[in-house]
Description:
Layout: H1 4-15, H2 23-45, H3 50-62, H4 66-74, H5 85-95, H6 109-118, H7 130-153, H8 175-181, H9 195-203, H10 212-220, H11 223-231, H12 236-257
Amino acid sequence: MIDILQAKGAFKRYISNYDINEPKIHIKIIHMYHVAENARKIAKSLNLSQEGQDLAELIGLLHDIGRFEQVRLYHTYSDKISIDHGQKGVEVLFGDKLIRNFIQDDTKDAILYKAIHNHNKFEIEKGLSEEEMLYCQIIRDADNIDIFRAVLEGKKIEEFGHLGCEDISKEILSPKFFEDFKKEKPLVYAEAKTDMDIMVAIIAHIYTLNFKESFKIIKQNNYIHKFVEKLNCQDPYTKEKMYEIVKIAMNYIHKRVEGKEDENE
């Protein structure tokens, strides 16, 4: 049995070990609460049991726990130049049995481990059980949805780029990234030539989503339109292509909400 209120109390005690007013830590705490909320919504939409919904919320609450040590040790969120935060998360939770502070029963440990470990990978590992795969998909959806909220609520959109641009509105979209976006597949951040490419890679997270509820959340919050509006593209070519990307993305989202493509439900 999962006591989600007790787990949230344990989470508050854990994060008290860090400077919660430090911007990188503060932003991540807010993110984890939102992802937990998204995960519960998705689980509820799938008619999972109360325990199943609690488990999804717990995974959401803990999915980025490795970020706190990443920031403390390396002062960055970049896994590329520091550590794999998903792997660090399971090390933190299971290395010293910290997981028992959040859930006393160990019967869900395999699901918790696999979901947290896989949440940030480009693809989910092979060989998982049906239940493990389900929760991996739920947390990945919940996490990817919240990146839109995080960007929109952030003071500087440049903070979400990786290449250090000073004014993202003046960035230029690479033609290849535009063409790849039209293929309705996730984009590889490492292949980005500009921070505008990275913004398009963020939008392309919609191609990783698994559940109708995930698309509903994006549509209800009008995330795609708001996201592109905040970019405020100045380059004529980039501005034109971003409007096309909005159309492509919204058409894809509409099809998934209406159930016109195969979905995992």
